[in-house]
Amino acid sequence: MSFTASATLARLEREGPLRLTALAAAEGVTQPSMTQLVQRLERQGLACRVADPGDGRVTLVAVTDAGRAELAERRRLREARLADLLATLPADDQQALAQALRTAWPLVRRMLEADPGPSSGRAPRDETGSTR
């Protein structure tokens, strides 16, 4: 699964169903690229289109239960890999890393909360995550 596909599913899980145009803008990709990505996610059973409860003329993209399960498994595998890597560090390095994370995490959280999104001057990405 591409980074963009994974990020798109994670956004849908976090924010709920979104219009395709809003999803493309939020992920910083073109609308045609997002359309192709959503079609691929639909074929894989990871996303689906649903009617907007507020406007029946509008279609939203939503993550499916299978998509949530895929995200959970990817997170579990990533956490297990990280735990294995951290276990190879000497105890002093583990403690130093823990202290650095305690110091850096509040800054990272503030940066993420202040992220202006795709209008920050980033070049649009295609469905593979490459800039164009």
TrEMBL record:
Residues 112-132 are annotated as: Disordered. Residues 1-106 form the HTH marR-type domain. Residues 123-132 have a biased composition (Basic and acidic residues). It comes from Streptomyces mexicanus. InterPro entries: HTH-type_Bedaq_tolerance, HTH_MarR-typ, WH-like_DNA-bd_sf, WH_DNA-bd_sf. This is Winged helix-turn-helix transcriptional regulator. One of its GO terms (molecular function) is DNA-binding transcription factor activity. SUPFAM superfamilies: Winged helix' DNA-binding domain (SSF46785). It holds the Pfam family MarR.
